[in-house]
Specification:
By secondary structure, this protein is α/β, with parallel strands linked by helices. Helix content is about 35%, strand content about 20%.
Length: about 325
């Protein structure tokens, strides 16, 4: 039996500390025995280009390039001839990353009669907060644009949570929606016992996520700084992104012992085993993969309850949530 051939739009494929990329990579790995994937991505200078990749130039926009580079989310520039050629060799187009390349790819798929699936990974709030426009009146307008360009233009939509599906419906999506969790891989269902904290060792507080405004790692630093247990706490924030230097300066100024930056997969598993509490302070989450990973590893969790986040859907006890946006509730 021939494999199903799927073209998948994931512009920043080679930047794995991005929730959309993590989800897409896991999806591809899980189905690679049954599906032949063609990854439509921004041309990479790294060595992580997958077999069968279809490469596109990076978009260059004066005065915006610096922001895109800081967000570590390169956006690909469409090439109509290349997309039309690709559509003749695939059975399905699956959009994971909804920007210029996805828009053009959907139009090429329509010309070729190729069915389209769009996954919902990017909230307009993500984009606007990274542009310094958090709380902007532009949010409804950007939702309308996304719904028109990517979700109502598809044959089917995949949402990672009921919260995400309800958001799309509320903003006008008419296309059928199926809720399928991003899921987590077997390595997080750990057979090794959690490592007890040695007597006298500091309490290890863990956060995992992109270092960006909507993840609100600054709130965690402030909460630790205000705690009467501050001197007994060590904070590990795992991730990369535009706010790393700012967060490091804040931790130093507030007198918080913090290690901020990326780590390897093996190091992350060790941190999940060792940490006393996992904290997710995000104000924008369509599901919350790192929180799911922590829960699978048996970590106690503290999660931010926000009207723009799906974290409240996770099956944890009521006292595992704190209210924002101030840090006092988390300190308590």
């Amino acid at each position: 039996m021939n494999k199903l051939k799927v073209g998948m739009v994931v512009d920043p494929w080679d930047l794995p500390f991005n929730g959309t990329v993590v989800s897409a990579r896991r999806f591809v790995a899980a189905l690679s025995d049954q599906v032949e994937f063609r990854i439509l991505m921004t041309a990479s200078t790294g060595d992580d280009t997958p077999d069968g990749a279809v490469l596109f130039e990076k978009v260059s926009i004066p005065f915006v390039n610096r922001i895109i580079d800081r967000m570590q989310a390169p956006v690909a520039k469409p090439n109509s001839a290349r997309l039309d050629e690709l559509m003749r060799s695939i059975d399905v187009l699956h959009v994971q990353y909804p920007f210029f390349l996805a828009f053009a790819a959907i139009r090429a798929a329509r010309r070729a009669g190729v069915p389209v699936i769009s996954s919902y990974h990017v909230q307009p709030e993500n984009i606007l907060q990274n542009l310094g426009l958090g709380g902007s009146t532009l949010v409804p307008a950007l939702y309308r644009l996304f719904v028109w360009a990517f979700y109502n233009a598809a044959d089917h939509v995949i949402a990672p949570s009921q919260f995400a599906a309800d958001l799309l419906r509320r903003h006008g999506t008419k296309t059928p929606i199926t809720v399928i969790s991003n899921g987590i891989t077997d390595q997080f269902f750990d057979s090794q016992p959690r490592q007890p904290r040695p007597a006298g060792a500091p309490f290890l507080l863990l956060n995992v996520g992109r270092l960006a405004p909507e993840k609100q790692q600054h709130l965690i630093i402030d909460a630790v700084a205000q705690s009467r247990h501050r001197d007994r706490c060590e904070l590990r924030i795992v991730g990369s992104g535009p706010r790393r230097d700012r967060l490091q300066r804040l931790a130093k100024t507030r007198g918080v012992k913090a290690n901020i930056g990326p780590c390897s997969d093996d190091e992350l598993l060790a941190l999940y085993r060792q940490c006393d509490v996992f904290i997710q302070a995000s104000t924008v989450e369509l599901e919350g993969m790192s929180a799911l990973e922590a829960m699978a590893m048996g970590c106690p969790v503290l999660l931010h309850r926000s009207c723009t986040s799906a974290l409240h859907e996770l099956p944890v006890q009521a006292h595992a949530f704190f209210e924002g946006p101030s840090s006092e509730a988390l300190t308590e």
